[in-house]
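[step 3/7] inverse_fold.run input=structure_tokens len=383
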């Protein structure tokens, strides 16, 4: 979860607690109350929830848990899986709210107005993404270790009250200040090989689940090009229009209104990008329609299960931006992601022979030594 989402939810009237990063206990509890045959992120999520609820920090009669879900893949089973785990753990009184369905009959006390929440969440995601980009570009180059991390934590904390007060202009100004301060960190002048991180949404953004791959790469002299959160959510703009044109679905909103929403969203995106352009290693981000066009080089945009077409698209995006090395993180047995990632690897390499790609599978018992060995081979083949 983005560290800024609790502030975004506070702005719309909910006290959201972002659970701490998973650990070995999360893994063990997840395996105990689910099993190793489910999607790996589900194992960690179940364990995180049970660990938190058993900690004694929360009044179980006044607490609910909530998750976001991908559509059309095994993640649709998460609410039922979590409810079953809660029953087995003696926590059946705790409601489980899915952000995907928002079933008002099952969760009558929870209502989320996306017209209000959407801009607030978008601001949080854009700000967090650019802070992440600044951090990763600086951390591998810094002379005094820890400078980039210190600034990352500083500017995430400074953003929280602005998000809660819905001060978007001040938040954009703060991003500009952050860019200028990141520029003051003393760095070396070396050229570092770049590696992009692609793959399933949970694995990409949960360092424990992927065994801290990003930190490992930076420790071995590789500049990490981090994934961004906002494109994962903006791809729905492409999906809606593609499905309309191909008679897959009949959206309630007319096409002209979707174009207006797109323009409004990207007006906001460009404001954050302009502020981030003060950063010395700034590179502009392509819009989601351009990214979708790249995806069409290798598969049809009807591939929307899980991350869908965004998986190969982000790999191609890295290549277009001069990063020819990509680590693709997948939960073991994730059919949707294996089809849209490994299934198109040969096609991408045919179009872009300079690609050096490493696909890593993760589950509850993955060997850290095996991951390290494969990463060593990966960086030895960097171009």
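[step 3/7] decode complete -> sequence:
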């Amino acid at each position: 979860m983005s560290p800024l989402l609790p502030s975004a939810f506070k702005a719309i009237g909910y006290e959201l607690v972002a659970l701490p990063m998973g650990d070995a206990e999360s893994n063990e509890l997840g395996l105990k109350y689910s099993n190793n045959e489910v999607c790996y992120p589900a194992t960690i999520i179940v364990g995180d929830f049970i660990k938190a609820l058993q900690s004694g920090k929360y009044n179980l009669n006044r607490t609910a848990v909530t998750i976001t879900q991908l559509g059309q893949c095994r993640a649709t089973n998460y609410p039922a899986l979590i409810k079953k785990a809660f029953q087995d753990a003696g926590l059946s009184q705790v409601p489980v709210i899915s952000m995907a369905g928002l079933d008002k009959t099952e969760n009558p006390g929870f209502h989320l107005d996306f017209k209000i929440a959407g801009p607030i969440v978008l601001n949080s995601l854009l700000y967090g993404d650019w802070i992440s980009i600044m951090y990763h570009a600086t951390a591998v180059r810094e002379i005094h270790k820890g400078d980039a991390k210190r600034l990352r934590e500083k500017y995430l904390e400074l953003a929280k009250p602005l998000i809660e007060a819905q001060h978007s202009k001040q938040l954009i100004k703060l991003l500009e200040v952050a860019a200028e301060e990141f520029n003051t960190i003393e760095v070396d002048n070396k050229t570092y090989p770049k590696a992009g991180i692609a793959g399933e949404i949970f694995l990409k953004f949960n360092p424990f689940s992927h065994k801290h791959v990003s930190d490992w790469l930076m420790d071995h002299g590789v500049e990490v090009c981090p994934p961004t959160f906002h494109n994962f959510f903006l791809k729905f703009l492409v999906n809606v229009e593609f499905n309309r044109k191909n008679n897959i679905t009949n959206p309630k909103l007319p096409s002209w209104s979707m174009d207006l929403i797109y323009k409004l969203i990207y007006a906001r995106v460009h404001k954050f990008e302009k502020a981030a352009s003060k950063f010395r290693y700034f590179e502009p981000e392509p819009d989601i329609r351009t990214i979708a066009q790249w995806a069409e080089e290798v598969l049809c945009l009807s591939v929307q299960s899980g991350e869908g077409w965004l998986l190969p698209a982000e790999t191609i995006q890295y290549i277009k931006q001069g990063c020819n090395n990509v680590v693709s993180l997948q939960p073991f047995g994730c059919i949707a992601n294996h089809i849209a990632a490994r299934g198109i690897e040969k096609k991408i390499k045919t179009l872009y022979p300079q690609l050096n790609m490493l696909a890593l599978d993760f589950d509850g018992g993955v060997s850290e030594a095996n991951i390290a060995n494969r990463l060593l081979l990966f960086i030895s083949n960097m171009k």
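[step 4/7] annotate
Strands lie at 65-67, 96-98, 194-199, 223-225, 325-331, 356-362.
The chain has 16 helices and six strands.
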